[in-house]
Each structure stands twice: as structure tokens, then as C-alpha cells.
Specification:
By secondary structure, the chain is α/β, with parallel strands linked by helices. It has 28 helices and 19 strands. It starts with 12 loop residues before the first strand and ends in a 14-residue tail after the last helix. This is 3-hydroxyacyl-CoA dehydrogenase NAD-binding domain-containing protein.
Length: 689
């Protein structure tokens, strides 16, 4: 314990008080977890926090309470282990010690002869959720912001009982989803209602009087007036579910995420119910993974998403931002319609769409209404909110409706001439202070604004599809974009709950430039004669979210060909133009069907006689990424390599275990071999030398 105490920990205190509950003949012991900060710095457990909880449990038991309950400070239950301290562990023995310490303290609640309750009042993740699982009963607030066991996304496993308790509580299919599938899906969180339906909580309560109702419910359980029933867990399907899960991981990750496979092994151990053996296996797995490169990359990626994304590098003073009272959207296609719904939901201001004819406008507004109806039907939106949104979103063919809009964004065809014409028409209508934002994916903001009277209020506002899912927003500063416009763009991005990254006005910005170079290299191998299936599977060892051809299909071959042409014009020596890609785009046929190459598409190709091996394709793609990233950093497209990684994680779904892009290129030696230097200091997202 003394060695562990050396870590730089913000200690979460376990504060004990006695609470008189009506109907009970003696007080209950209520333990509140609180690190002394507000909700922006959540409770976590390091050695000091575990020691404090241990002491509180001892004191609670000594008072002979009617029951023991654990809850958290406002909005936060506990978000797990103090992961900041993990890299400070000196050796495997210390890693084992922290695992065993957590197990020993939490087990006191599980093994207690006094009834124990978790009053999950707010966010509960990782070790926080595992603490709740150790309690005999759980209440859950409907206002809890996030519930998850996200460890696999970081390169770890739930190491304080989660892999053993959860499957025996909610069954192996649901536990596999929570422990493995959700973390690998952009770290998907459970909503309170979902958690309750899975059986993680025994009762879901309203947030307004959550603590009072939890105490009342717990008293009913203790008095025998409330009976908690839980469905029996089906053990017969255990092996089949895990076999299917392993096969799915093999197809998707190809062995690239050791933590996911370790988690499967631990879930298998949980079947026989030997809790001591299962938790001992968790300790060993945790100790192995703490000193892995994947964990270091995962922690680096986590820090980017949780910290850097909330403080964008280079963003101007937020006090310069203008207030937005109305939004105009030029276009009513799918992207424009998605934007209309997002702006209306997040900003709660009138949003008006325009297009060339009434049928397109009606289709766009109809899409928004349909999505609202679906949200109501699925219980994700109440009828009052829906009614308000119906009233906020409208459409017109008359652009004069934009006259009083403060923020206008265009989502029209990706053609510079078309976009310049749009802004030339609108500048005569809108106020001089209105921000003009473009959702262009590759065109120059500076050129787009060059002929306007007020080019300083034009800014790039590049979303990623699907708009509601991908959190990245590339905010592009043209040569004449002023600080007020930029500050307003960042303020709007924050209101939209997007993670904004400041990008220089350079062709295709960050994500599309890198993906185009990446896909271009893979497709160049096809042009040389490499079979489509070989090129498509070449990057499998990285464990990317999808194979290159599936990504190409998602982007759209026509869009990829267009963006590739833009980049070829700017950088002809590095970005080629593939006639085979044009043939595929013109055919309109899917490239892959059920993750298999479409034979009909393969017949369209005209290829050379110099096929590459999968290893050659992979290395060429990685070399190209390393070269392009170094050039982008030298050009000042973003402030630092960390912004490249943040963009690729949030905009392209590149996994945490890679740390985005640059840590992997550093770890494999690619960056030094190609560019002569690392992107990050040694130890920043990797093990120390």
C-alpha cells in the first residue's frame, strides 16, 4: 500500500453519516463519495480513495445500521479507477496490488451480512459501476448521464469484479454487449432506462427526489415490504454466445485488441460462479495489460477526447462570440436535413431550409419530421419537445427568409462555382454580421469568400456523416476569417455538443486528406494488379473500424473520386486519380456485399501485372500516412500531432488502442523511417524507453 500511495492521486473521500429512515428502528449508514470538486472533475478510485471507502465501511458496520448505502456527489456516482495513476505503477507487482486492493474493499459490500445498496445518482463507469454491482441492491437515477464498463476501449478489462458479476446478473449476451461490444463502438454508453431494462438496476427513479425515494425504497426492502426478483440467468447459451463473440472479434479486429480477447476469457471464467477464482484471473489480466503499448495508446486517446477536445487549440476568446437567434440552411438534401434537425434540437432556435424547388424543400422538412416522430416512438423524445421542434424547422424557396438569420450554413453540391454563387446571392440578403458557414469537405474557404464584400465572416464548418453520430467538427479558418466569426463558430460547435478542432484552410483539411491518401494508396495497389480481396484485408492487423473498401463504400465512390481530384490538383505527386475508382463510381454498384468483394465490380477493373502482397499494401499505406501527417504538421494545418489523432478518432472512428494514428506510426518505427523523426515524445503514448 505504501508504494501505491506514491501515485499523484486526487483522493475521493467516502463520507459516512447516519440517516434516520421512517419505518426503521435504527439509522441507515449512508456513504457519499466526494473528491471535493464539482461534477466537472468526477470521483475516481486510487489507493487513497479505496482506503477511505474501506474505513467508511468499517465504521458503518460498527454502528450496526439497518442497511448500508453508497452514493455519489451531485451528478456523479463514480467513474472508476484513477487511470492517470496507472502509468506511474512501477512493476507488475504493483499492478496486482491495486487490483487486489479494489477487490478486497468492494467484496466487503458483497459479503456483508447487513443489506447493502448502491444509490447510483449519476455517472457510473468502470470501477464505479463495479462498486455498485457488489452491492446487494441498486437504485438508479433517470438523470444519470453515463453508465458503462469502458475498459476494453482503453486496452484494459473491468478489473474489479465486473467480468464476474455482470454476466451472472444480466446474462452473458447482455454482459458481452456492455463489456466488449459497447466499448468498441465509439465507447457507447448506456442510458438509465437501458441499464434498468437490462437488469443492472433494480429500480429506476426520478432525479428530482432520487435520494429520498432511494432511502424509502431501501427501507421497504429491509422491512420485507418490497421484494426484488431477478430472472434466472441461462447458463446453457454461455459457450455459444462467447464462441460467436470471439468469431465476431476475429472478423473485426483480427487479434489487434488484446484486451477484448482477455475480457472474453474472463467472461468464460464467470460461468461456474467461482468468484474468488474469477477475480484472481481479473488481477492477472489487469497486471498483464497495464504494461502494454495498447493501454498507453488508449490512455493517450482518452486524454485527447476528454481534455483536449474540450479546450480546442487556437480557439479565440469565447467572449467574442455572437448570440445566435436564427439559423439558415442552404440546401434541403440529406446532409442539410440532418443539420436542420441537429441545430433545432441543440440551439432551440428557428431553423429554415431553402432549396431550388418546393418538392426538395418539402422532402427535407419531411425528413426532419420523420426523424422526430421516430424519436418519440422509441421513447427518446417527449411529445412536448417534438411539438416545439416541429415549429422550429421550416422550409422555403425564398432566400429572403434568411434576412434575419445570424448563422447560415450551406450544404449544397461540392463545386466551388456553385458555392461562390450561393454566397454572392446571400450576401445581398443577410446582415453584415451574419456568419456564413460552409460544410465543404475539401474546397478552399479563402477562394469561396474571395469575391465577397465581407469575406471575414466566412468559415468552414465541416461535419461528418452521420451527423448525429460522429462528434468531430472541423472548423476551418480562411485567410481573412476574423476572430469574431471564429469564436462564434466554436461557440455554436459547443452548443451542438461537437468536439471542434481548428484547421488551416488547406485542401480536404485533416480527415478527408488523410483518408484520401490512405485509400488512394490501397487503390493504387489494385490498379497495379493486386486482387481486391488482398488489398481489402491488408490493413486487418490494425483492427480498424472497417476495411478500406467498406469505408470507400460508406464515403461513396463518386465523392471519393471528387475529393481525390481536388487533392490531385493540389498535390499531383502524392494523390493520384484512379480510373478504376471512376468506373466503380459510374457503375453505381456496391463494392462490397456482406463484407465480401462484389465480383461484378471486380470485372469492371482494368489492372496491371504487378500485384503486391498484403504486407506491402499495408506498409505502403502506413508510409503514406506518415509522410502526409509530417507535411500537414509542417504546413501548420493543425497545431500539433495530437489534433491529427483527435480528428481521426472522432471523425473517422480510428480506435483508441492505436491512439489515433501517430502513436501507432511511432510504435512501429514507420514515422522515423519515413520522416526521420517521431511525431510524439517517447513515452507520450507508449511505454518508456
Amino acid at each position: 500500500m505504501s508504494a501505491l500511495a506514491a501515485t499523484n492521486e486526487v483522493v475521493t473521500k467516502a463520507l459516512l453519516r447516519q440517516v434516520n429512515v421512517p419505518g426503521l428502528d435504527r439509522p441507515a449508514a449512508l456513504i457519499t463519495l466526494d473528491n471535493g470538486f464539482d461534477h466537472t472533475k468526477p470521483n475516481t478510485f486510487g489507493p487513497g480513495g479505496l482506503a477511505s471507502l474501506d474505513e467508511a465501511i468499517t465504521a458503518a458496520l460498527a454502528a450496526d445500521p439497518a442497511f448500508i448505502a453508497v452514493t455519489g456527489k451531485p451528478y456523479i456516482f463514480c467513474v472508476g479507477a484513477d487511470i492517470v495513476g496507472l502509468p506511474q505503477l512501477a512493476d507488475r507487482a504493483q499492478a496486482l496490488e491495486i487490483g487486489r486492493l479494489g477487490h478486497r474493499v468492494f467484496a466487503r459490500l458483497k459479503d456483508s451480512t447487513v443489506p447493502t445498496f448502491a444509490f447510483v445518482n449519476g455517472a457510473a463507469m468502470g470501477g464505479g459501476l463495479e462498486l455498485a454491482l457488489h452491492c446487494h441492491y441498486r437504485t438508479l437515477s433517470g438523470g444519470a448521464a453515463a453508465l458503462a464498463l469502458p475498459e476494453v476501449s482503453l486496452g484494459l478489462v473491468p478489473g474489479w469484479g465486473g467480468t464476474q458479476l455482470l454476466p451472472n446478473l444480466i446474462g452473458i449476451p447482455a454482459a458481452t454487449q456492455v463489456i466488449i461490444q459497447n466499448p468498441l463502438m465509439q465507447n457507447k454508453m448506456l442510458k438509465p432506462k437501458q441499464a434498468a431494462e437490462l437488469g443492472i438496476a433494480d429500480i429506476l427513479l426520478e432525479p428530482a427526489d432520487f435520494l429520498e425515494r432511494s432511502l424509502e425504497w431501501a427501507a421497504g426492502v429491509v422491512r420485507g415490504q418490497v421484494t426484488v426478483t431477478r430472472p434466472e440467468v441461462d447458463k446453457d447459451m454461455w459457450a455459444g454466445v462467447l464462441y460467436f463473440a470471439r468469431e465476431t472479434l476475429n472478423q473485426r479486429l483480427h487479434g489487434a485488441v488484446p484486451a477484448a480477447y482477455k475480457a472474453l476469457d474472463l467472461l468464460e471464467t464467470a460461468k461456474d460462479g467461482d468468484f474468488a477464482a474469477g477475480t484472481a484471473a481479473e488481477d492477472e489480466a489487469l497486471a498483464d495489460l497495464v504494461f502494454s503499448e495498447e493501454l498507453r495508446s488508449g490512455l493517450y486517446a482518452f486524454d485527447l477526447v476528454q481534455r483536449r477536445a474540450k479546450r480546442p487549440a487556437g480557439a479565440p476568446d469565447k467572449g467574442l462570440a455572437r448570440t445566435i437567434t436564427k439559423v439558415g440552411i442552404v440546401g434541403a438534401g440529406l446532409m442539410a436535413s440532418q443539420l436542420a434537425l441537429l441545430f433545432a434540437r441543440r440551439l432551440q432556435v428557428p431553423v429554415v431550409m431553402s432549396d431550388l424547388d418546393q418538392s426538395r424543400v418539402d422532402k427535407g422538412v419531411g425528413y426532419v419530421h420523420t426523424q422526430i416522430e421516430k424519436a418519440v416512438t422509441k421513447g427518446r423524445m417527449d411529445k412536448n419537445t417534438a411539438a416545439k421542434l416541429y415549429g422550429l424547422v421550416s422550409g422555403t424557396v425564398d432566400k429572403s427568409a434568411f434576412a434575419d438569420a445570424d448563422f447560415i450554413i450551406e450544404a449544397v453540391f461540392e463545386d466551388l462555382g456553385v458555392k461562390k454563387q450561393v454566397w454572392a446571392e446571400l450576401e445581398k440578403i443577410v446582415s453584415p454580421e451574419a456568419v456564413l458557414a460552409t460544410n465543404t469537405s475539401s474546397l478552399s474557404i479563402t477562394e469561396m469568400a474571395a469575391e465577397l464584400e465581407h469575406p471575414e465572416r466566412v468559415v468552414g464548418f465541416h461535419f461528418f456523416n452521420p451527423v448525429a453520430v460522429l462528434p468531430l467538427l472541423e472548423i476551418v479558418r480562411g485567410e481573412r476569417t476574423d476572430d469574431v466569426t471564429l469564436a462564434t463558430a466554436f461557440a455554436v460547435g459547443k452548443q451542438l455538443k461537437k468536439s471542434s478542432v481548428l484547421v488551416k484552410d488547406a485542401p480536404a483539411f485533416v480527415v478527408n486528406r488523410l483518408l484520401t491518401r490512405f485509400l488512394g494508396t490501397v487503390f493504387a495497389a489494385v490498379d497495379q494488379g493486386t486482387p481486391l480481396d488482398v488489398a481489402n484485408s491488408a490493413l486487418d492487423p490494425l483492427g480498424l473500424p472497417m476495411r478500406p473498401l467498406a469505408l470507400l463504400q460508406l464515403v461513396g465512390p463518386a465523392v471519393a473520386y471528387h475529393v481525390g481530384g481536388t487533392l490531385h490538383a493540389a498535390y499531383p505527386d502524392r494523390f493520384g486519380v484512379s480510373e478504376n475508382l471512376k468506373r466503380i463510381a459510374d457503375s453505381g454498384q456496391p463494392i462490397v456485399v456482406d463484407d465480401q468483394v462484389n465480383d461484378e465490380v471486380a470485372k469492371l477493373l482494368v489492372v496491371g501485372d504487378q500485384p503486391l502482397t498484403a504486407e506491402q499494401v499495408r506498409q505502403n499505406a502506413l508510409d503514406a500516412l506518415a509522410q502526409e501527417i509530417r507535411l500537414m504538421l509542417d504546413e501548420g494545418v493543425v497545431a500539433e500531432a495530437q489534433d491529427i489523432d483527435l480528428c481521426m478518432i472522432l471523425g473517422a472512428g480510428w480506435p483508441f488502442h492505436l491512439g489515433g494514428v501517430t502513436p501507432y506510426l511511432d510504435r512501429t518505427g514507420t514515422s522515423e523511417r519515413v520522416t526521420g523523426q517521431r511525431f510524439l515524445p517517447r513515452g507520450a503514448a507508449s511505454l518508456p524507453a
